[in-house]
Amino acid sequence: MSSDEKPAAAPRSLAEALRARDDASLTALLRSRPDLITPVPADLTQLATRAGTRASVVRALERLDRFALQTAEALAVAGDPATYGELLGLMAGDEGDAAVAAALPRALGTLREQALVWGGDDRLRLVRTARELLAPSAQHPSPTGLGPTVQEATAGMSPGRIQEIVTAAGLPSTHDSVSAVAALTALFTDRKRMAALLATVPDDSLDVLDRLVWGPPYGQVTADPAPRLRLLMDRGLLLPTAPGTVVLPREVALHLRAGRAHRTPEPVPPAVTAAATHRPQIVDATAAGQAYTALATVEELLKDWDEGGPNVLRAGGLSVRDLKRTAVALDVSEPVAAFWLELAYAAGLLASDGDVEERYAATPAHDEWLERPPADRWAHLAGAWLSATRTAGVVGGRDAKDRTLSALGPGLDRSAAPEVRRRVLSLLAALPEGTAPDPESVLARLRWERPLRGPQRDHDHDLRERLARWTLSEAELLGITGRGALSAHGRALLGAPPAAAPARAAEPTGPGDKLPVHHHRADTAAAPGSVPSVAPAPAPAVASAAERAASAAAAARLLAPLLPEPLDHVLLQADLTAVAPGPLRRPLADVLGVLANVESKGGATVYRFTPASVRRALDAGRTAADLHAFLAQHSRTPVPQPLAYLIDDVARRHGHLRVGAASAYVRCDDDALLNEILADKRSAGLRLRRLAPTVLATPADPAALLEGLRAMGYAPAAESAEGDVLIARADSHRTPPRTAPEPVPDGPPVPDATLLSAAVRAIRAGDLASTAPRKATASAAADGDLPRTSSAETLATMQAAVLTGEALWIGYVNAEGTAGQHVIAPIRVEGGFVTAYDHTADEVRTYPLHRITGVAELEPDAG
Q1: Rounded to an integer, what distance in angstroms lies between the CA atom of residue 227 and that of residue 204?
Q2: Which residues neighbour 562 within 8 Å (Cβ) at sequence distance 6 or greater?
Q3: Angle, CA 758 vertex, CA 543 and CA 551 arms, to 5°
Q4: What pLDDT score does 702 carry?
Q5: Using alpha carbons only, what angle is made at residue 299 by residues 297 and 301, rounded to the nearest 5 degrees?
Q6: Cα separation values, 217 from 92, 131, 188, 194, 220, Å
Q7: C-alpha R_g of the chain
Q8: Rounded to an integer, what distance in angstroms lies between the CA atom of residue 254 and that of residue 235?
Q9: Confidence band, pLDDT 50/70/90 cuts, at residue 522
């Protein structure tokens, strides 16, 4: 700075402080507090006003880490304004604390970045709303446990009583209450004099102070206090605030605390400790095995619902009975079954069909998903889980109206779920490869990073801890982790770089700088007593669709070699079973799934052939010859004779009876067989009657008739109105095209770089329009109002500005009737329009002259 230049004046308001920021700093503010640009403020004054509103400040405070919040709490009990030295004293105490001193610039930088604190180090100001939320009062005790100051506590006290306290404290009496309170405050803030005063206080009275020193600072007294209390009250060490209530003044408490605002400052996040360590290859193999199981489970779930799943409850969701049936079918517990259901729903593979009798069924996207390679299918499921707000863990709980929360039903969205999932996996990614964390240390770290405040504190803490625990278990179920440690493909899905050997973290370049989460090696590698220069990871930025797709593709590439290679054969056995020694290729698995029933699963899958399963294949359009050829082609062992006989026997009887719609009828060329059916007592419920020698009719519908005859041991076939056999395909029922449920955001979404850049330009331009100096002319309006000029004056001023190239301030009413102001540089005036570069919009625009309410010239140095 040259000798002629004057130092920049200290900002007098938050708006001035924001005006002094560069674009990068404003962008960081808007990114960390996206509610400030919903909608985009007109100028920096409006931005500052919005940043000080209660709702916005509360939201910003709730997203601070523990040490940054402790710093804000200390500023709330400090002077206004406070110096950096005063703040450091409140945080580190009289004896000092190296860890606190090292971490304080980062915490203060975070508060400044989020516009919760403004001003230089010699005049630090906490925004007024934050001070009101954090400062102590009788109705709202401070989180620090400190009470009101001497001045605040004596505000309603009589002058005579104040003089009595001053005299009892050993101070000379004064002529007025203001100077008396100032003298008492000076005594309590003077360490030496205060120590001398307390040295004269008996131990039993000091015990009373010790019980109040860390809060709450209020105590109850009787109308006739005990001598030990009376002594404290006489000397002002306890001050009355209401009848029967006394408070420990803030200055006295700070002296007893050795200057600390908090009992235990927490400048360093707690380390995530290791519970076990495995070889990375073992972790990846275990995770890959579980990923394959996840794919098989989702396929099995949707295969069972191919012909239509359970009905949708009237209030939405799945009934408790249907959830239990699903759990039995999948051989898992009900909470795990709910997880798989919600995962398929979040991935867009499952939805309601929207029919009159609404049921759940697979979507058309499910068929497309089945055609993709296994690794890609897994990446689709894992990506859907990572970003979904629907939370299976709350199934079975109660909503605000005490209604049971059902799987696939409403009320399962928890907007914090994606953030917690990503943060938990990020903490795992920060550990060395193969390291499984101690779950309790993960929870402790999350509590430090988001301590929260307010009446919802306990509820939110409980929810976030449950979300974290569910994340650890669900990641294991999905195969993102193996044996508790993050796998290589899980790391790629997260978008984290490969883990490296622990190394010293890079130093931040200034207050508020943050490091990527994978640099948090200082948590475990720092020497005892050292302070890692690592800031807690902020809320994860919203990844673009391209970034998510790239991460999913990278995860699929890493997982693919670890998945078992699909087989094209089975081993047929003489006991009417087939053994699949591994996963089967899609066409083989589909056909075998129709031809046989799964008897057991595991490393090898055992299928059993039964008359019903063979009939099912024949109903699907296969012939006996097709089945013989299929088994001979895909079996590594000869087709056993009992299996060949079973197929031929069922095929010989299949379709001998034909069922159609009468309501329903049975026709057969063998009238003896129809006589046999009529004579069977089990057919009484079908109410059959003979219409012709080869035809029986019933009032039951065709489906009930088919089921009844099959239960009696026959193999009827359904036919169309034209007499053709109807082929029943397992995948015939699908929902109409459905989209996956959209996540419910936790507040306004984090804006992308393009929106942030445009918002900053718009705010800057609007601020220029509102603060640019105007020439004082008779036609100009009062300061802050739109200019008003006649049409002739407007046209003349515009034409002159075209020649001189000067910028103008105009008032303009748009087509919707909204009035605004702009700073423009006219380029040409013709045909009733002015074409100009609009500094407010940062682009060239054309304005109708009749919509311009007035124009004023700017001062020459306004640009």
Answers
A1: 10
A2: 284, 285, 288, 489
A3: 10
A4: 83
A5: 70
A6: 21, 19, 16, 19, 10
A7: 38
A8: 17
A9: very low
Say if residue 784's pLDDT is above 70.
Answer: no
Q: Which of 478, 452, 68 is nearest to 296 (CA)?
A: 478
DSSP letter at 561 equals G
In this structure, the number of other CB atoms found within 10 A of the CB of residue 595 comes to 22
Number of neighbouring beta carbons within 10 Å of residue 114:
23
d(CA 863, CA 860): 7
Query: By the 8 A CB rule, do 144 and 262 touch?
Result: yes
Report residue 688: phi and psi, to 5°. -80, 145
Give the alpha-carbon dihedral of 288, 326, 302, 470, to 10 degrees: -40
Tell me 763's DSSP state: H
Angstrom CA distances, 679 to 181, 669, 674, 689, stand at: 109, 17, 9, 11
Angstrom distance (rounded) from CA 566 to CA 569: 9
> What are the beta bridge partners of residue 573?
577
Phi, psi (degrees; rounded to nearest 5) at 490: -65, -40
CA distance 90 to 373: 60
CA-nearest of 333, 154, 359 to 238 is 154
Residue-level pLDDT at 540: 44
Main-chain phi, psi angles of 276, to 5 degrees = -160, 155
**457-478 and 280-304 helices, crossing angle to 10°:** 90
State pLDDT tens for residues 246-293. 999 999 999 999 999 999 999 999 999 999 999 999 999 999 999 999
Length of the chain: 863
Domain 772-857 matching CATH 2.30.30.100: the answer reads yes
Closest CA to 604 of 588, 582, 573: 582
C-alpha span between 460 and 472 (Å, rounded): 18
Q: Residue 8 has what pLDDT?
A: 58
Question: What digits encode the pLDDT tens for the residues 46-76?
Answer: 899 999 999 899 999 989 999 999 999 999 9
- Could you tell me if 301 and 370 are in contact, meaning their C-beta atoms sit under 8 angstroms apart? no
Report strand pairing: 658-660 vs 717-718: parallel
The pLDDT tens digits for 681-710 are: 888 888 888 888 888 888 888 888 888 888
Nearest-5° Cα angle at 138, 136 to 141: 40
| Strand order, beta sheet including 597-600 | 571-573, 577-580, 605-608, 597-600
Give 512's pLDDT tier (boundaries 50, 70, 90).
Answer: very low
* Average pLDDT of the residues in 736-752: 80
The pLDDT assigned to 537 comes to: 44
567 near 775, Cβ under 8 Å? Answer: no
Nearest Cα to 130, choosing from 73, 184, 79?
Answer: 73
What type of residue sits at position 265?
Answer: P
- In angstroms, rounded to a whole number, what is the distance separating the alpha carbons of residues 188 and 248? 12
Higher pLDDT, 773 or 419: 419
**Alpha helices for 600-670 (secondary structure H):** 611-619, 624-634, 641-653
Other CB atoms within 10 Å distance of the CB of residue 486:
32
Give residue limits of the domains in the chain: 14-134, 150-256, 274-302+372-501+545-559, 571-653, 658-718, 772-857
Question: For the residues of 278-291, what is the DSSP string, one character each?
Answer: --HHHHHHHHHHHH
Using the structure block, give the residue that is written with the tokens 């098989």.
Answer: 296
User: Is the pLDDT confidence value at 774 over 80?
Assistant: no
List the one residue out of 315, 317, 342 whose CA is nearest residue 417: 342
Q: Which residue, among 719, 580, 601, 603, has the nearest Cα to 657 in the 3D structure?
A: 719
The answer to whether 420 and 443 are in contact (CB under 8 A) is: no
Q: How many CB atoms lie within 10 A of CB 831?
A: 10
- For the stretch 395-417, pLDDT in tens is 999 888 888 999 999 999 998 99
Residue 183: count of CB within 10 angstroms of its CB: 18
Q: State the average pLDDT over residues 494-506.
A: 55
